[in-house]
Amino acid sequence: MGTNVSLRIDVFEIHAGRNEWCQDYSGLFQSGDLVEVSRGDRINGAPARCVLRKPFGDVLERLTLLGICEQSVKIEFGKLAEEHSSLTEGDVDAQEREQLQFDVFRSLLAAIDTSSVDDSRIYGTYEGYAGLFEQEISPALSLNLTHEQAESAGEILTYMGGYSVLWLLAQNESNLRHDVIWDFADHVAAGYSTTEEHVRPVRREDRFLIVAEGSSDSAILEKAFRLRRPAFYDFFYFIDTERERFPYPGHGGLKNFCRGLITINLLNQTVILFDNDAAGLSSFNEATEMALPTNIRVLRLPDLPQGTLFATIGPDGESEGEINGRAAAIETYLDLSIGPPPRIRWKQFEDVIGQYHGELESKQMYAQAFYELRDPGNYDFRKLELVLNTITDTCIGIAQARAGAAG
To answer: Is the N or C terminus of the chain more exposed, i.e. has fewer CB atoms within 10 Å?
Structure first.
C-alpha cells in the first residue's frame, strides 16, 4: 500500500512526502475543508478516506498571512540558486553568465498550467522539469533560456518549499480557478498518521492577537471576520477586556498595555487597535512614538469615507459633520440604518489634539443588532470592510517582516 502524502493543484504535484517524512501544510486549510474520497473503501466498515481541499484563491489569502510574498520567495530562490551553483563544476565566469535570474524563474513557474502538467508529462515526455522549461515553456515565452539555466530551474524547483511554489504558481490567474489538495489518505490508511494529525488549528506563532479598546470592539471584529473573511478568520484571536478582567481598559490603558508588551519582549504577532476618536487618536499618537518591535503594530480605526456625515449635538448645539479623529469608534462602522437616525454627542475636550471627543448615542443598540444578525445579506458591511482590510493588511506586513528576518 502506498504511503505518500502529496500537496497538489489539480494534477500538478507540488510536494510529496513518504512514510515519516512529511511536511506540515495544515496552516493552509481549515477543518471545514476535509472531504471524503473513495467512498467505496468504506465497505465492511473500513474508515473513511479523507483529504483536505480548498480553492486556490482562499489558500493564497492564507499564504499571505503566513508571510509568503515576493521577497520571501526571492530569498529562498537565492539560497537554492547559490547551493546549486556551488555544486556545479566548470568555469566560474561561465557560471555567472549562465546564472538563472529570479524574474526568469518566476516567469517559468507562472507559465505552468496546473490542469495539464502532471508527473507523466514532466518525467515521461520531458524527462524532468528542465526539459519542460527548455523545450516547451521557454519557447512559448520567447525566452533565451540556456540548457544550464533550464537545469538550474529544474533543480531549484525540486527543492523549493511548497509555500513558495504555490505563490509562484498563483502568478498565473488561470491556476487560481482550481483547488489545492493535501492528500494524506494513503498515509493514514497505512497507519503512519491519523486524519486528526493533519487537520489542526493554525499554529499559535502564526496567529495574530488583536487587542482593542473595549469588549464591544473585540466582539464586533471577531464576528465580522467570521462573516466576511471565512477563508482565514482563524488567523485572528481577540481579548475580551471585560470577560477576561483586562487590567487596561480604554484608550489610556491600551497605550500602557502597549508599553508593557515592549518591556516584556512579547513574541506574539500583535495588533493594538485604537478608536478613531479624539481620545483614541491622542493615545495612538503616543503609542506610535514607542520603540515597537516588528511583531507589534499599533493602528487606529481607518477614516470613514470623506463626506460621511453624522448629526451631532454638543456645546454649540446641533450640527452635522465628519467625525474622523473625533468620534469614530467601532460602532460608527456598523449598519446604522437599523434603529433611529444616528447622532454623535460631543463630550470632553482633548487638549493634546485640540478636539472634542464624541460618542455615538445608543451605540449599544447598534452593536446588539450586529450581535444578533442572522441574515448578513441584508446588512451594510461597507464601513466594516474598511476596518477588516486595514487589520488584515497590517497583519500581512507583520508576517512578511518576520519571514524576511528569518530569511
So the answer is: N
As a whole number of angstroms, the distance between CA 106 and CA 77 comes to: 10
For 321, the enclosing helix (H) or strand (E) is strand 317-321
Cβ–Cβ < 8 Å for 106, 169: no
Q: What is the pTM of this model?
A: 0.89
DSSP calls for 33-97: GEEEE-GGGGGGGPPPEEEEEEEHHHHHHHHHHTT-SHHHHHHHHHHHHHHHHHH--S-HHHHHH
* Kind and range of the H or E run holding 358: strand 355-360
Show the cell assigned to 127.
Answer: 524527462
pLDDT in tens, 120-145: 899 999 999 999 999 999 999 999 99
Say which amino acid occupies 349: F
Element (H, E) at 220: helix 215-228
Question: Sign (positive/negative) of CA torsion 162, 167, 173, 179?
Answer: positive
